[in-house]
């Protein structure tokens, strides 16, 4: 079972600290969806796969007549229902691999935000080909490793604690072995492993920026790929890192390493941010108030879009 589906995973914490998506991302997806559609075409039905707490379903609902939000995690489904009041949105538990509750050619647009790297495509592709209408669209997107703009010295620290093959601090294991694979690798590789069946989909469009593959300088990134950029307090960035599935796996494996908030000597995230803060004199000078420091954070991103073939 995925860590997100475990009863110990905090769906509320995930909702509180995960970055939201900007209007420019949704505008790009809707622009692709609406291209070549008849001016009189209705909004139709949106299918949101791996909906999490329902953020995408709520954001795109005004553009569709009905929305079906699907997630395999009971906790996520419960959180989405709590946060969603629009009557046109139906939230239910389920997977991309089993859409048997949907009639043939009943979906106009299918989306998956930060979820497409978990699908079993041997089952998901046939289901999507069945339920998406001719001319309908698909949009999968995700974001991955972040960098703090203007502070490249912090990136190696992040890499060492999150992906390092050796101990980032003597006696402390990194998060590396706790990532759920191959999902994380597929995301970090910008969905290159997700191959659209050519007989079912056309007009494939991919927009990606890979800060882990080349320069961390955002000037090297195409503007259309820089949609996941936020001004955050360092404390909020710390909270985001604590939503990592790998962190929750690390926590389960090392229950003796209590966070300082719990009265312990510090878990891996405490130790990571201790080093991050110490690297920048201005942050270190803030003492215990370092969590209030605001930083510009940008993530590597990928968008994959396609149109259902006319058959």
UniProtKB/TrEMBL annotation:
Q: Name one GO biological process term.
A: methylation
Q: Mind telling me which Pfam families this protein's record contains?
A: Methyltransf_11
Q: Does the keyword Transmembrane apply?
A: no
Among InterPro entries, the record links this protein to:
Diverse_substrate_MTase, Methyltransf_11, SAM-dependent_MTases_sf
Show the SUPFAM superfamilies listed in the entry: S-adenosyl-L-methionine-dependent methyltransferases
Q: What GO molecular function annotations does the UniProt record carry, in alphabetical order?
A: S-adenosylmethionine-dependent methyltransferase activity
Q: Which UniProt keywords apply?
A: Methyltransferase, Transferase
Report domain Methyltransferase type positions: 47-140
For this chain, the family text in UniProt reads: Belongs to the methyltransferase superfamily.
Q: Which PANTHER family match?
A: METHYLTRANSF_11 DOMAIN-CONTAINING PROTEIN, METHYLTRANSFERASE TYPE 11 DOMAIN-CONTAINING PROTEIN
Protein name as it appears in the record = Methyltransferase
Which organism is this entry from?
Echria macrotheca
Q: List the lineage, top down.
A: Eukaryota, Fungi, Dikarya, Ascomycota, Pezizomycotina
